[in-house]
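note to self: dont lose this again. the chain is below, predicted strucutre after it. 308 aa total, dont forget to put it in the shared folder this time
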Amino acid sequence: GGDRIVTTEPHTVYIKIAEGCDNLCTYCAIPMIRGRLRSRPIEDIVKEAKDMEAMGAVEINLIAQDTTRYGLDLYGELSLARLVRAITENTNIPWIRLLYCYPDKITDELIAELRDNDRLLKYMDIPIQHISDGVLKRMNRHGDGATIRSAIKRLRDGVPGIILRTTAMVGFPGETEDDFAELCEFVKEIGFDRFGAFTYSAEEGTAAATFDGEIDEQTKQDRYDILMQTQLTVTEEKNEKYIGRDMKVLCDGYDSVAEVYYGRSEGDAPDVDGKVYFKSKRKINPGAFVWVKITEALDYDLVGEIKV
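---
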């Protein structure tokens, strides 16, 4: 409701750690537009992180088309954990978040870093796109459904309490009712903490744009609605469990229409995940960390009161 106030405070920033992509998914035009993977040197990224910290950043979100592939071109090995350690050692930024991690490149070293580094948030975004082997193969995704299941199990076993976000695509050419049913079952079974979906649309010049088995828009939309409804049930169950608990929240701003502050827990990435709305008698500045007692769960958001 109402216009949200856009905060310009630089407390939350994105740092791009690589350009381009080597994955060549059949639906994606990025390798054609941006070329092959080109990782930025660790020292460049560390310098940017220090500059951002000097300007007030307390949360950095590391992004690339595929962050888990970071460093392969520069250093000859997967180097995301090493990068995170360098940022941790050279700054005091309290929240470091990983986005766009591919399941086939999640190393034991990275899992250990998530477990042991208390400034690396126990949060990972793993865009799976699908779980059906047939669909994954046509998408030219690296690894199959078993790869995805294994990555999730390793993360949950290795990092107790980790918050997992994913994204799935419905209506890819040739996606059958069985494929879609398998995806819905999987979403129910795994219980992702955060979830987004989108319908397939053909990108000019991509391999998938020439595939047969195109799915009509209505079917795509129906599948999207069913999938999001499936996830909503999961999310509601998870959110109910937070009621009565205290949560550390990073304040993002104040909504003058609703007269509440809003922010995010470590389990919520900016722009894509839910928010925590809270009232406070004292003024809270954007970028401040506060403890909030959760009193209510909405669909994707939580409501609470500040702990004085």
